[in-house]
Amino acid sequence: MKMLHFDNQTIWYDETLLKDDPMQVFSPEFWQQQGKVIGNAQGRGTTWFVQTQTIQAALRHYRRGGLFGKLIADSYLFLGWGKTRSFKEFDLLKTLIKAGVNVPKPIAARAVRSGLIYKADLLSEKIPNAQDLFSILIKEPLPAELYQKIGQEIGKMHNAQVNHTDLNIHNILIDDSGKVWIIDFDKCLYQPGDAWKQGNLDRLKRSFEKELAQKTIHWCKAEWPTITSQL
Ligand SMILES: Nc1ncnc2c1ncn2[C@@H]1O[C@H](COP(=O)(O)OP(=O)(O)O)[C@@H](O)[C@H]1O
Ligand SMILES: [Mg+2]
Predict the structure, then answer these.
(1) What is the distance between the alpha carbons of residues 170 and 83, in angstroms, rounded to a whole number?
(2) Which phi and psi angles does 130 have, rounded to 5°?
(3) C-alpha dist (Å) from residue 96 to 81, 148, 162, 176, 178
(4) Model pTM?
(5) Which of 183, 185, 188, 207 for a ligand 1 pocket mutation test, highest count of atoms within 8 Å of Cβ?
(6) Which residues contact 70 (CB under 8 A, 6 or more apart)?
(7) pLDDT tens-digit profile of 3-29?
(8) 166 given a catalytic annotation
């Protein structure tokens, strides 16, 4: 990993994956001007999918959710470069890849400081030919085999002691070869012990139930144990 440090800005990047200018890649306009935006997805904000000189990537600007988010949309309290959300997610993704969990490769992270606050961005590998679980379940039910694979992937993440504090059906992707991927590690953390693991599962289960209540997804309660049977 390489690092560029200035008074008010730090950029971390993987020099084997990033051949574009690290100073430019966090700006959506940089990609738009070159006609290299290949799509986008809406979450808390917009995730831009871009064609870099090496691989396709997902560019995300860190944003808060909820009411608080409307007041200080994308600003966080600065407590040191190593404690910024973008650096921590970059670092966690590297740990997860080493542990053999299917997560996007981190390409570059940035934090920009102004006084007490900072703003942050992350560029990571776009998972090719993948859809999130919510988008799939709107259209059709998922075969039991894939629920098993979801359970296995969560199990690998938990064995690596990573607490995914926002595990939900929008943050699980499945690609066209049937591989399961976990994304969106903002605010997630390395945490010893087991006590917190059930909390991740409860949150995921609630996200199925919430969409089911609105009758939007092809899912039934009996499918839940297929996930947990793999843990
Ligand atoms: N690396 C990626 N590969 C493919 N799709 C992605 C990737 N990262 C994000 N997405 C898509 O963008 C959506 C929002 O991204 P996410 O990282 O979950 O941000 P947030 O939930 O904070 O808005 C995801 O639900 C997914 O559909
Ligand atoms: Mg998300």
Answers:
(1) 26
(2) -120, 155
(3) 21, 20, 8, 22, 20
(4) 0.96
(5) 183
(6) none
(7) 999 999 999 999 999 999 999 999 999
(8) yes
